[in-house]
Amino acid sequence: MTKLEFWQGNTACAEGALAAGCRFFGCYPITPSTEVAEHMAVKLPKKNGVFIQMEDEIASMAAIIGASWTGMRAMTATSGPGFSLMMENIGFAAMTETPCVIVNIQRGGPSTGQPTMAAQGDMMQCRFGSHGDYSVIALCPASVQEMYELTARAFDLADQYRVPVFLMADEIIGHMRERIMVPDKVAQTPRRELEKGVLPFQPDAQLIPGFATFGKGYGVHVTGLTHDERGYPCTTNPKVHAALVQRLVDKIENARTVIADYDVVNPDAEQVFVAYGAPVRTIQQVLHDHPNDNIGLLQLRTVWPFPEHALSAFKHAKVFLVPELNLGQIAREIDRHVKVPVVSLPKLGGDLPTPSDLEAALEAHK
Amino acid sequence: MTFEDWFRTDRLPHIYCAGCGNGTIINCTLAAIDQMGWKKEETVFISGIGCSSRAPGYIVTDSLHTTHGRALAFATGVKMANPALNVVIFTGDGDLAAIGGNHFIHACRRNIDLTVVCMNNQIYGMTGGQGSPTTPKGCLSTTTPYGSSEPPFDLCELAIAAGANYVARWTSYHVKELEKAVRAGLETPGFSFIEAMTQCPTNFGRRNKFKQVADQVDYLKTHGVLRAKRDRMIEQGEKIPEDLFVIGELMRRNRPAMGVNL
User: Fold this and answer.
1) Could you say which residues from 76 to 105 on chain B have a Cβ atom under 8 Å away from some Cβ of chain A?
2) Which residues in chain A touch residue B60, judged by CB atoms under 8 angstroms apart?
3) What is the 8-class DSSP label of residue A190?
4) Which one of B58, B80, B126 makes the best mutation probe of the A interface by having the most chain A beta carbons within 10 Å?
5) A44 CB near a chain B CB, below 8 Å?
6) In what helix (H) or strand (E) does residue A80 lie, and over which residues does it extend?
7) pLDDT value at B98 more than 80
8) C-beta of residue B215 within 8 angstroms of C-beta of residue B205
9) pLDDT category, B133, cuts 50, 70, 90?
10) In this predicted structure, what is the pLDDT of residue A174?
């Protein structure tokens, strides 16, 4: 059974998290993500969960990592300036392989920028924002329904791959209200507990170690320093460092086809839009208005690890058109994987591209 | 209690310099925990970055060695998520009072049920002897080559003002008193802050005219005065030398606390 609701995107995000078993939420208020926190503040105490407003986003990120080591599903929500502050401990989560979910309701940057306007300017920051090499998973919802579903899935991915998972939404999806079908129950795959006799950072065949939950007698040492499979600091052995960092990247990149989530519309098209988040909605309008024009759409719900194999679904593509609320952050990524021209259609300022903006682009690149 | 009970013997030898006071403070802390009868699987040590913060890596319990200054924010997450865990934080003056100052005052304000042991060596030891927020005025470090021109923080006064339930200061000389203070901190629901002044012969002592380790320990012994004595000196109109510092139990109260296991 599902029930029909009319929700704001940020509400759907919080509800998706609760349905996925999130019971710890650490946050700092920031527009346009605050409704996620406000909803969690109301709901979590009633579910025996923990809501805590921290002193800043650095602390929010730290708190959810701490909670995660006690075995809880934990999340935070923020926007650009707070996201920048979180980068330090996001790197710690990547290095210590701590499952956690970070929601970024993107707004215009750099700096304080446009607090109430939409943007997608943090797509590269979520991939590369903390120092050193690592890989992450980033999901991009384009509707209130997807806000719910992708937030819920983010927890399973975080637990399965032991990695920070980002829900990279934007102000439009976060604040938009629309119809949503809410399922009774969301399936959950719990994180794999460490087996007896196995070292706490010894990887399995998928390159992922079992989780040594605090308080269960493992006596695990968790450190942001380069560590060996016992978890002990080992900072001057080049081989240990190279193997660890390579594994942190490979465990995600090797699984990119499994993690990938995308939709292909009109695979025979010669002109193909590639988009994620709010701009998808404009493209859907264009497709709706031009049913006979065979315009392609690749909607990415997973942006990182980048599902480049999805691009090959369009065998006849002559051009990829990439509308984004930034200056072409993902267009450049697409360009690395295809031989035909990739046209970036950036839109800054907070508004979506209009259908006529995209129609003009189709005309210009015929 | 023997050291094998609480230490990861496969991690020894440790990184601390000869003459360092941190081992003394870790010993006092573990002795107090042992007296409490806390089980290893119910105890978590958390730290930030610096010499002090390497301590959890040598202890057999679950331990979280985090980012610089952030130990208390991580500890807040651990303790609020699972109040059944006993959470102890090792930190230092740079970690706690400089980069972690904001987390420190807010953890005190929340009065969250944590015990914090701060090894205050008045210097950044691990990075080679830079001035910290507790480096006394006039003292030499690699970043205060002409003597520190800034007034230092009084960490205990900060903790008291911000709302901690238990606050005490001792030194690496006062081992019995320090052990008792940590024990009192562990017993007190809410935020407990124990500052342990300690010698850093490598990076503080040798730049500040302490030729021997014992000279610096002797300094800690002779310059720490009990609050009652200091108050008496003030009453009698004596001038308080600038290099005296107050030791003893400085606060014990029962403000409402967060994260207490009921």
Assistant:
1) 76-82, 84-85, 102-103
2) 219
3) P
4) B80
5) no
6) helix A80-96
7) yes
8) yes
9) very high
10) 98
> Whose structure tokens read 């960490």?
B155
Q: What is the DSSP string of B122-163?
A: SSBTTTTSB--TTPPTT--BTTBTT---SPPP-HHHHHHHHT
pLDDT value at B262 more than 90: no
| B65: contact with A, CB 8 A cutoff | yes
pLDDT tens digits, A3-55: 999 999 999 999 999 999 999 999 999 999 999 999 999 999 999 999 999 99
Domain ranges in chain A?
2-183, 263-364
**Average pLDDT rounded to a whole number, residues A163-175:** 98
CB contact under 8 A, A218 and B62: yes
**Alpha-carbon distance A327 to A325, whole Å?**
7
* Alpha-carbon distances of B261 from B73, B79, B188, rounded to whole Å: 19, 9, 12
Distance from CA of A91 to the nearest CA of B (A): 10
Per-residue confidence (pLDDT) for residue A1, from 0 to 100? 77
CB-CB neighbors (< 8 A) of A230 in chain B: 10
Are A62 and B40 a contacting pair at CB < 8 A? no
Domains identified in chain B and CATH numbers: 19-252 (3.40.50.970)
Is residue A166 within 8 A of residue A139, CB to CB? The reply is yes
Q: Which fold has domain A263-364?
A: Rossmann fold (3.40.50)
pLDDT higher than threshold 90 for residue B2 = no
Q: Are A334 and A320 in contact (CB under 8 A)?
A: yes
pLDDT in tens, B154-168: 999 999 999 999 999
With contacts defined as CB-CB under 8 Å, which chain B residues touch A62?
Answer: 66-67, 70, 73-74, 76-77, 103
By C-alpha distance, which of A194, A207, A213 is closest to A253?
Answer: A207
Q: What is the ipTM of this complex?
A: 0.97
> If you average pLDDT over every residue of chain A, what do you get?
98
pLDDT of residue B55: 97
B64, A59: Cβ pair inside 8 Å?
no
A238 vs B123: CA distance, rounded Å: 30
Class of domain A2-183: alpha beta
Task: Place A306 in a pLDDT band, splitting at 50, 70 and 90.
Answer: very high
- Flag whether pLDDT at B4 surpasses 90: no
**Chain B nearest C-alpha distance from A22 (Å):** 11
CA distance A93 to chain B (A): 10
Interface mutation vs chain A, best among B45, B65, B85, B258, most A CBs within 10 Å:
B65
Interface of B with A in 15-44 (CB under 8 A): 40-42, 44
Mean pLDDT of chain B: 97
